[in-house]
Design a protein that fits this description.
8 strands; alpha/beta; 52% helix; 13 helices; 8-stranded mixed β-sheet; single chain
């Protein structure tokens, strides 16, 4: 036997083992809709190694993705037939209905994940449309801007059958580090989306008003900006506490009850009116607080105002 036989044998065994255990193939994915978010989603799938087919209603959006390895389909139907997982992200519900009507015959046997932002009722409507045609369906929401997609910080919600989500969770994980399943009811992803955006836009409005108030009193907005981390830093624990209170119906006042905080709102209104700032948002806040106070809730916490926000005939 040649002197190098052991080495040659080891090399052969290593080669055979490598051949016998290939890297698992990545699930092919189709992305329908190549706006800024659609392009970001497709790029994330490509970076994760998924064969990715793309399509857009208007031409000229796929060139960069094709350069990265994507396949551009000539029609939506061609795109759907290329993959078992079809991700739809278009402008609005009208666009969803137009696109899905064109591909309805090609979707059975595949899973449609609709990430188009809209209302919970429209999510349920699309889910019912899919169920009537035997189409596997997940509804979802993207909670981050395009530059965060594919990073550990990207948050997306999904709703629908749990087994369907589990089947594609690893593939959807290419889109970010926080791919959350929120429940079987199809409207839940949109409900989570709108609840977070409700908080976001109210907060942004409050921040703009805060800067205007500071400026009106002679303070430099850029100088005061760093101190807002005192407020934002405590909000996660406050949100968790208030969520528990809303669920339980118990609203302890503690060291800062509604009566005390409503007095601060009065001061904000007074200063804003004095400086001729818009007070629409503040008056809306004051109106909710005043109605809770009139109902005798002054010693409870601010969370007690939820009973004013809720419909009066809530069962």
């Amino acid at each position: 036997m040649p002197s190098n036989a052991p080495t040659s044998a080891a090399t052969a065994l290593t080669s055979a083992a490598t051949t016998a255990a290939p890297t698992a193939a990545k699930t092919p994915v189709t992305v329908l809709g190549l706006g800024a978010m659609g392009r970001a989603l497709a790029a994330a799938f490509l970076r994760a190694g998924h064969p990715t087919t793309v399509w857009n209603r208007s031409p000229g959006r796929a060139d960069e993705l094709v350069a990265q390895g994507a396949t551009e389909a000539a029609t939506a139907a061609d795109a759907v037939r290329a993959s078992p997982l079809v991700v739809l992200i278009v402008l609005d519900h009208k666009a969803v209905t137009e696109v899905t009507a064109a591909i309805a015959d090609d979707l059975p046997g595949r899973t449609l994940v609709n990430l188009t932002a809209d209302t919970p009722d429209r999510a349920r409507e699309t889910a019912a449309w899919a169920a009537d045609r035997g189409i596997d369906y997940l509804d979802g929401s993207v909670m981050v801007p395009v530059h965060v997609i594919g990073t550990p910080h990207a948050l997306l919600f999904h709703a629908g059958p749990r087994d369907l989500f589990d089947r594609y969770a690893d593939t959807l994980g290419a889109l970010g580090g926080r791919i959350e399943y929120v429940g079987a009811e199809f409207g839940l992803a949109a409900a989570y989306d709108l609840a977070l955006l409700d908080y976001f836009y109210a907060s942004m409005s409050g921040l703009v008003h805060a800067f205007a108030l500071a400026e009106a009193e002679g303070a430099d907005p850029t100088a005061i900006a760093p101190f807002f981390d005192t407020i934002s830093g405590i909000m996660p624990s406050i949100a968790a506490e208030m969520g528990s209170e809303v669920a339980s119906g118990d609203y302890p006042g503690g060291g800062a009850n509604l009566g005390m905080m409503a007095a601060t709102v009065e001061h904000l209104v007074e200063v804003s009116e004095h400086r001729r700032l818009d007070t629409g948002v503040l008056h809306a806040i004051k109106s909710v607080a005043d109605r809770a106070l009139a109902a005798g809730r002054a010693k409870e916490g601010w969370t007690a105002t939820v009973d004013v926000v809720r419909p009066a005939d809530r069962s």
